[in-house]
Amino acid sequence: MTEAPDAATRGRFVVFEGGEAVGKSTQAGWLAISRDAELTFEPGATRVGRELRRLLLEEYAGRLDVLTEALLMAADRAQHVAETIRPALEAGRDLVCDRYIGSSLAYQGYGRGLSVDTVRKMSEAATGGLWPDLIILLDMDPLRARARGDAGTDAFEALGMDFHRRVRDGYLELAAADPGRWTVIDADRPASVVREDIAALAADRLGWM
Ligand code: TYD
Question: Separation of 67 CA from ligand 1 center, angstroms?
């Protein structure tokens, strides 16, 4: 397994997780700007990742074997870590990422029904065991999120409420099992209020002022 970058000199790695339309991208963008951190996302941030994203969410959406889907997400992550995440952290840059390993655990594990342990092993192999310093779970009832009306129409967004409830419950279970890494934020509030909570959290947990 590849060594994680030296903890003393590397940048801090913050990940936003959550279901569809909970405001992740907005909050990730705000936090990155406030800290002048690099902002990135999964799936699809690298050149090959864009192809993988297209295959996953468009061309083969709904037609992939679940294990294939999980492996392609992991492949996207491997390239993203190698090309973007690890170099930034090693150069001492802070980095904010919209979705990471937690998305695979919640969607491919709890949502699709693959063994969560198997999915975790895939992601750990893909990333060399590089876990974020802080994972911010923006939690909201998926029905409420959908009612906000800013959900898109990609492959996962089109899945039924049962799927999205499993994803939400899975996320909450992951957060409860690892409170040192995960923090749950109630996303069913005005974005400006959520933003204040996140700023306070980043100050407390990372010393980001
Ligand atoms: P994204 O573009 O971030 O959509 P959203 O704006 O809803 O967050 O992600 C695309 C979809 O891919 C999203 O429905 C979640 C799904 N996904 C997985 O199933 N597994 C993964 O590992 C990742 C990173 C995303």
Answer: 16
The 3-state DSSP class for residue 54 equals helix
Residues 68 and 76: beta-carbon distance below 8 Å: no
Complete DSSP assignment for 103-150: HIIIIIIIIT---HHHHHHHHHHHHTT---SEEEEEE--HHHHHHTS-
Which of 73, 100, 103, 122 best tests ligand 1's pocket when mutated (most atoms within 8 Å of CB)? 103
| 133-174 tens-digit pLDDT | 999 999 999 999 988 866 566 778 888 999 999 999 999 999
98 by DSSP, 3-state: which? Answer: strand
Helix axes 66-80, 116-127, angle to 10 degrees: 30
Q: Using a 6 Å cutoff on CB, does residue 103 contact ligand 1?
A: yes
Q: Tell me, using a 6 A CB cutoff, whether residue 73 lines ligand 1.
A: yes
AA identity, residue 62:
G
Q: Indicate whether 3 pLDDT > 70.
A: no
CA 78 to chain centre: 14
